[in-house]
C-alpha cells in the first residue's frame, strides 16, 4: 500500500525533497493561491502550525495557478507574499498543477486516497462554492480531483490520508481532527 512518503516534490526554492522526510509527522497538505478569496486562510493555517508544530504537525503548501490564474507569481514572489502578508513559516513547495492530467503525483495520490464527497450543503460558504463550480465548471464536479484553491488533506503519522477538507472549510474547523492524530 502506498503512502505519501513514496513521493517527492520540488520545494519553493526548487530543491527536490522526499516526503519521507515527514515520516512520523501529522501532515496537512494544502493547495494554495495568493489572489483568491480564500487566501486569508493562510493566516489560519499559520495559526494551526504554530499551535501544533511542536506536537508533530507539519503543514505543506503547494501553490497552484490552475484556478482562474489566482497564483500568477513566480515561486520567489509567492514565498515573499506568504511571508510578508501572513508570516507563513511552514514549508512551501514549487507551484504545481493539482488537478487534471497534469496533476502532480502527490495530488494524484491524495485525491485517489480521499475522494471528493461533495460540498456540505448545510454550510452556506460550501453550498455557494458547490453552486459556483456546478455552473462555471460542471465537468470538474464528476471526478475526485481538487476542485479549487485551499483543498486540504490530513495525513496521519503513518503517511495515510485520513480526511479531505474542501476549500470552504476554514483551518480552525480542522482542530479536532488534527488533535485526534497528534
Automatic annotation (TrEMBL):
Keyword Oxidoreductase set for record: yes
Family matches, as Pfam families: GSHPx
PROSITE patterns: GLUTATHIONE_PEROXID_1, GLUTATHIONE_PEROXID_2, GLUTATHIONE_PEROXID_3, THIOREDOXIN_2
Organism domain of life: Bacteria
Active site (record annotation): 36
One GO BP annotation of this record: cellular response to oxidative stress
Name under which the protein is recorded: Glutathione peroxidase
